[in-house]
Amino acid sequence: AGEGSAPTPGDGGGPSAPERVLFPPTFSVSEIKNKQRRHFMFLRWKQQQRKEKLALKKKRRKEREALGDKAPPKAVPKTIENQRVYDETTVDPNDEEVAFDEATDEFAPYFNRQTVPKILITTSDRPRGRTVRFCEQLATVIPNSHVYYRRGLALKRIIPQCIARDFTDLIVINEDRKIPNGLVLSHLPDGPTAHFRMSSVRLRKEIKRKGKEPTEHVPEVILNNFTTRLGHSIGRMFAALFPHDPQFIGRQVATFHNQRDYIFFRFHRYIFKSEKKVGIQELGPRFTLKLRSLQKGTFDSKFGEYEWIHKRREMDTSRRKFHL
């Protein structure tokens, strides 16, 4: 509509006009031919939707306040996470079969306190600056870890040397175009080996409102939402990287949070301000992992036996189906 046309229903005729519905029920923005007008009307429609949503929220809150203790419980919002399709491999903590598997798997010596974690962090061949800095910062998060920069040495030659030197885990950071984009975690000496895609890497200097440098205290470890048998195995792999007894005086915590099969890593320091309030500051680095495969034994790209491989076309048929 041009400047001389009649006002659109809902223009209101000025600030003093009573509020009324801006658009008829059958209104469709896509019917407007003029691109600028269509964009303008779309923004107004979105604004109206927001106002209606806020008004409804306000009305419900007043009704709840009026009812007091008799108010019905708040409705749980629908999310992809709480509507997930049930997985038959979901772990029951009291399952005797699961308990037996845990007592005899590759991580049992760690959880029985027979081994102390000793980690080697290495890179793809001839790493660049950002990957080097990320490895250095990761080494400050994981106690008793050592960084080694590869120069043409194959992983199959590195692994026997790690086992001979009593390393319990090997972490390999891969990069593409100078950006870290993959992580291989191999538990020594008998595996398993997990391959992750890495994204959203943020170094310490790139995090807003970051805290001071982390101390050498052993951090606490939080593992969230690793509910299936596969997720349980991955959670145990991460747990086996850290010593058993955290030093609470350091007030540092490493979190692996699984949501929709994406594993978000965060490293924080906390302080109790009062009995109810806790302040936290992020120390960094932060990154996100997505499991691509889980392989039996140590790294073997040719003859390795895979327990699980992510096949997008077969497995990602439903947005509500998760594997961890």
Automatic annotation (TrEMBL):
DNA-binding found in the keyword field: no
Protein keywords: Ribosome biogenesis, rRNA processing
Biased composition (Basic and acidic residues): 63-72
PROSITE patterns, sorted: BRIX
Domain (Brix) ranges: 117-300
Region of interest: Disordered: 1-22, 51-75
Subcellular localization, as worded in the UniProt entry: Nucleus, Nucleolus
Main location, first listed in the record: nucleus
Superkingdom of the source species: Eukaryota
GO cellular component: nucleolus; preribosome, large subunit precursor
A single BP term in Gene Ontology: maturation of LSU-rRNA
A molecular-function term among this protein's GO annotations: rRNA primary transcript binding
Record InterPro entries: Brix (IPR007109), IMP4/RPF1 (IPR044281)
Function: May be required for ribosome biogenesis.
Protein name in the entry: Ribosome production factor 1
Organism: Prunella fulvescens
Gene assigned in the entry: Rpf1
